[in-house]
Design a protein that fits this description.
Glutamyl-tRNA Synthetase, domain 3, three-stranded antiparallel β-sheet, 2 domains, 304 residues, binds glutamic acid, three-stranded parallel β-sheet, alpha/beta, Rossmann fold, 15% strand, single chain, elongated, 37% helix
Length: 304
């Protein structure tokens, strides 16, 4: 039986979320994603939550969490429930690893991604799969991850070439997506060699725990969605509906993202920022005079 059967949140028809990583302040690209998931939730009379994905300290920027939360508030994108912080949820991720470990679905791997790439080119599996340190460590016990850390290595999820690795889902924007996770991705990391939990694990555990029914986010994550669905199936968790929103680009053709130094939004210009975000989402507005007016027009337009 799946360990997450008891959701923290009551079941409802629609619950969406915006899940930023605090690697910098809110920029136009992330405002577009936040607006899309917010409008989709409101247009469905659903709930909308904010989840801070702060599980990767080396990539994070001091003060970014507070900056993002202030910006969302300034743009009136307010959460329906308490904000959860992934940095405080290690116990949940450990429970998921325990389940996968007991099912024989994970192994410890010391190969670099470069080595794995070479092996995969030759259609070979990583040798760590067969010399499983995990089997030698015996039954799951409390200190097992610390012991594993002393030996070094990441935890990988086995993705065997079986029918279950063919993932097909219908994205609400991009239509039917089909991907063979065994062939196109292979065994992927759920806990990194530096002891940090991988995004793929944390996002799957938290979407289920929060009872998220609809994930609306940027199209840069379309590619990793089959991996997340595969992991949901391994953990016996439900699969939410997905809607990926086309990315936005600046005049030079660069994706509006932190990597391309998209400027952090000025909260004093919230109404203008939201106008621009709506333009990127192809939402036509009739000269809104306030943020409330804009959001209410945008929700109506989203329904149509
Ligand atoms: N935290 C991720 C990011 O900021 C988004 C995760 C998600 O929406 O699934 O890119």
């Amino acid at each position: 039986m799946c360990v997450f059967m008891l959701y923290q949140y009551k079941k409802i028809n629609y619950r969406g979320r915006f899940a930023p990583s605090p690697t910098g302040g809110l920029h136009m690209g992330s405002l577009v994603s936040a607006c899309a998931s917010f409008l989709d939730a409101k247009a469905s009379q659903g709930e909308w939550l904010i989840r801070m994905e702060d599980i990767d300290p080396p990539r994070e920027q001091a003060g970014a969490t507070e900056e993002i939360l202030r910006a969302l508030e300034a743009h009136h994108l307010s959460t329906c429930s308490e904000i959860i912080f992934q940095s405080k949820r290690s116990h949940r991720y450990i429970s998921a690893i325990k389940q996968l470990w007991q099912q024989g679905d994970v192994y410890s791997c010391r190969c670099s991604s470069k080595q794995i790439k070479v092996l995969r080119k030759e259609c070979l599996y990583c040798p760590c799969r067969d010399q499983s340190i995990i089997e030698c460590m015996g039954e799951w016990h409390e200190n097992i991850l610390d012991e594993l850390d002393q030996l070094g290595g990441a935890l990988r999820l086995r993705v065997d070439e079986l029918a279950e690795s063919q993932i097909v889902f219908e994205d609400r924007h991009y239509g039917v997506i089909s991907k063979n996770v065994a062939k196109e991705v292979g065994d992927f990391i759920i806990r990194r060699s530096d002891g940090l939990f991988a995004y793929q694990l944390a996002v799957v555990v938290d979407d289920a725990w929060q009872g998220i029914t609809d994930v609306v986010r940027g199209a840069d994550l379309l590619d990793v969605t089959p991996r997340q669905i595969f992991l949901q199936k391994k953990l016996g968790l439900p699969t939410p509906r997905y809607r990926h929103v086309p990315l936005v680009y600046d005049e030079q053709g660069n994706k509006l993202s932190k990597q391309h130094f998209a400027p952090v939004l000025d909260n004093a210009l919230a109404l203008d920022n939201l106008r621009v975000a709506c333009r990127y989402l192809n939402i036509k507005l009739e000269d809104p005079q306030s943020i409330e007016d804009l959001l209410s027009q945008a929700v109506d337009a989203w329904v149509k």
